[in-house]
Amino acid sequence: MEKRAAILAAAKALFIRNAFAGTSMDAIAAEAKVSKLTVYSHFGDKDNLFREVIRSRIEDLLPEDIYQFDPHVGIEQTLHAIAQAHMHIDCQAEHVGTFRAILSDCRQGNPRYGKLLWEEGPARMHRLMENLLQQAVDHGALDIPVVKTASVQFFSLIKGDMLLRRLFGCDECPETAAAEIEAMARTGVNTFLRAYVPR
């Protein structure tokens, strides 16, 4: 387990630093201070290793329990907690670096990195969100005609342009980030609820 953890940590650092295409299994093994055979025996290939790195990181940052519907908790409170968690992730320099690495790989004609991240990140997130929204609809807390569409709308409302500004290097670490995160999360949730709270 210690070797596995060391490999994951090494792979995470190298994928962020060198992107997917620029990271070799040899380099990961050297960084983790294990043999390349050990890396392959734990993860099979680079795609599976990358998937495990992303899955592990996202489960740490966005555990599934934040998407659980509790009929005894107001839906506004649940949605606000989700909004806050997502906004904080988008504003961390490490994650901005990861997104830049994805764009670099895609520009070089290697979309696998982005596709793997999409499957373990946004696709997983939308499945969990759709399940939460459907439960809220079933309990009468929300009135949503198309849950899949509403999930996309929710994340669009809460994210704004903060991540894009960081990707373009406009404001890497603004002093007002905490207040902006709170305001964007709150107003995004309020706008979503105005559309879908039962009349």
Folded structure, characterized:
- It is a single chain.
- The chain folds into two domains: 2-54, Arc Repressor Mutant, subunit A (Orthogonal Bundle); 64-196, Tetracycline Repressor, domain 2 (Orthogonal Bundle).
- With 199 residues, it is mostly helical.
- It is built from eleven helices and no strands.
- Helices cover 73% and strands 0% of the residues.
- The chain has helices at 2-18, 25-32, 36-43, 46-61, 75-90, 93-107, 112-120, 122-138, 147-159, 162-167, 177-196.
**Total separate domains:** 2
CATH architecture of the largest domain: Orthogonal Bundle
Helix count, DSSP H or I runs of 4 or more residues: 11
CATH fold topology of the largest domain:
Tetracycline Repressor, domain 2
Q: What share of residues are in beta strands? A: under 5%
Which of globular, elongated, flat, extended, rod-shaped describes the shape?
A: elongated
| SSE pattern, N- to C-terminal | HHHHHHHHHHH
Q: Roughly what is the average pLDDT, rounded to an integer?
A: 85
Helical content band: over 70%
CATH evolutionary superfamily of the largest domain: Tetracycline Repressor, domain 2
Number of DSSP-assigned strands: 0
Low-confidence stretches: none
Q: What is the end-to-end distance?
A: 53 Å
- Judged by helices, strands and strand pairing, the structural class is mainly alpha
Per CATH, the class of the largest domain reads Mainly Alpha
Rg, nearest Å: 19 Å
The major beta sheet can be summarized as:
none
